[in-house]
Amino acid sequence: MTEVRKQGLQAFRELLPGVLPDGDAELPTDGFGGEMLGLALDNVFGRLWTRDGLSRRERSLVTLGILIALRATEELQLHFRIARTNGLTDDEIAEVIYHSTGYTGFPAATAAMKIAEEVLREK
Where does the signal peptide begin and end (predicted)? Predict the structure, then answer.
């Protein structure tokens, strides 16, 4: 296992506790798109979430804004949970969504609000 994969696994487990089992994880690689999780672990969690320069809390704020703008609903489900793990309150998450109305429009913000309501209910 490469060092970047180890860092990615550690960051992923810290950001989304309980999603991946502890220890060496056997990642699915078969079937259509079988390499997606490995790419995410290496390139996003191993290389981006572990960088110096921004705190994880700040990275969550930036990530939420980008994902709202992209209307990336699947990723928003995970990143609302990650934002909480990184210390954002529900009120701060709502404020990110409110703020995004001015830059991404109401349709994107409304879609994000619906996803946030579902995810944040899962305390």
Answer: none
74 with 123, same domain? yes
Q: What is the pLDDT of residues 14-48, one digit of tens each?
A: 999 988 877 766 776 778 878 888 899 999 999 99
Confidence of residue 59 (pLDDT cuts 50, 70, 90): very high
HEC profile of the chain:
CCHHHHHHHHHHHHHCCCCCCCCCCCCCCCCCCCCHHHHHHHHHHHCCCCCCCCCHHHHHHHHHHHHHHHCCHHHHHHHHHHHHHCCCCHHHHHHHHHHHHHHHCHHHHHHHHHHHHHHHCCC
Residue with tokens 């930036």: 62
Residue 63 sits in the same domain as residue 45: no
CATH code for the domain in which residue 106 is found: 1.20.1290.10
**Contact predicate 81/119, CB 8 Å:** yes
Domain interval for residue 73: 55-123
Q: Count of domains in the chain?
A: 2
